[in-house]
Amino acid sequence: QVQLVESGGGLVQAGDSLRLSCAASGRTFSSYDMGWFRQAPGKEREFVGRISGSGDIKYYAGSVRGRVTISRDNAKSTVYLQMNSLKPEDTAVYYCAARRSATSSYDYWGQGTQVTVSS
């Protein structure tokens, strides 16, 4: 069982940067593949990116590639989403999620943190 708590969201202006954090409970954090998702009002939840348990494999959605970086600190059981050059279309609730392997489904989700980008 993994519990996830996101933080770091807020209201920023276009062009600003923001770093989201996702703190996980449990002693086996490094064994989980972690993902970031977002959901804008009236839209489907969208994949943002993922990072492997060791942190050496990362993948980003095309809509954010080049502007975001996912990292993790397994000693702190925390995964991060660094977002730069934010745009109004990045406005969404951002969620982190955990899965036991790269081929399994995301079984654990956080409650989300709101990111609002003003123009």
Q: How would you describe the overall organization of this protein?
A:
It is globular, with a radius of gyration of 13 Å. Strands 2, 4, 5, 6, 9, 10 and 11 form a 7-stranded mixed beta sheet that branches. A 4-stranded antiparallel beta sheet has the order 1-3-8-7, with no helix packed on it. It is built from no helices and 11 strands. It has strands at residues 4-7, 10-13, 18-24, 33-39, 46-51, 58-60, 68-73, 78-83, 92-99, 108-109, 113-118. Strand 5 (46-51) and strand 6 form a beta hairpin. It is 0% helix and 50% strand.
What is the succession of H and E elements? EEEEEEEEEEE
Helix content: under 10%
Percent of residues in beta strands: over 45%
Structural class: mainly beta
Largest sheet: 7 strands, mixed
Mean pLDDT: 96
Low-confidence stretches: none
Shape: globular
Q: Quick one: how many beta strands? A: 11
Provide the gyration radius in Å.
Answer: 13 Å
For the terminal residues, how far apart are their CA atoms? 40 Å
Supply the number of helical segments. 0
List keywords for this structure.
mainly beta, 50% strand, 7-stranded mixed beta sheet, 119 residues
Q: What's a quick, concise take on this entry?
A:
This protein is an all-beta fold and 119 residues long. The protein is built from no helices and eleven strands. The protein starts with a strand and ends with a strand.
